[in-house]
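#lab-general

N.A. 3:47 PM
ok so I finally got the sequence cleaned up, no stray characters, all 214 residues accounted for. can someone with queue access submit it? mine expired

B.Y. 3:52 PM
send it over

N.A. 3:53 PM
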Amino acid sequence: MRADLLIGGTLGATALRRLDPATVATVVTDDPALAAEAERLGLTATTEPVWEPAARGLSVHYQRIVPEAQIRRYEGLWNLHPGLLPFGRGFYPVFWALYEGTPAGATLHELVTALDAGPIVDRTHVPARAADTGGSLHGRVQAAELALLDRWWPRIVAGRDLPSAPQPEPAPRARAKAEFFALKERGWRELGAAQLAHLERCLTFPGHPGIVRD
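B.Y. 4:20 PM
back already:
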């Protein structure tokens, strides 16, 4: 059996290069460069928001919200998330974990319409260290995600069951993109010196090198 691979970002690109192409049905991405790379590997790729699915699929940092009707077409669809669910729902979970001192980690869960709310298959706690920056914690979380990928992809493509359990409730609220950017671009002005230094240390992860100063 082969499974669809829904990908985005650097981790999605790593997954594309890491997995045996013979196990991948269709590569789904909103990044034309990733689609082109998949095609160079001899794979079928699409950038369309709706596609003809295989029986199973795995999302690795796919950038679009998968429509409910599309999810229902799968026998099983899972998602790799860079947060220790139920903590870290929403966007930039590594940042929020380090900034607020909440648990960090990686989770494989069933993909459902509610954001990062699906039943948990497996998760790995990645403890933050006193000297961590956003970049160093981000790197260890991605390593944990890749370990989950290596552990569970063979089972996905073999058609085997992936046992899961509902997330405990009440769960922390999901973070929106706007909340992150409001802090990065404007909210930092209200912080004291120590808080500002902490924020800048937490923002040192790929794509977000620091606060936005006028």
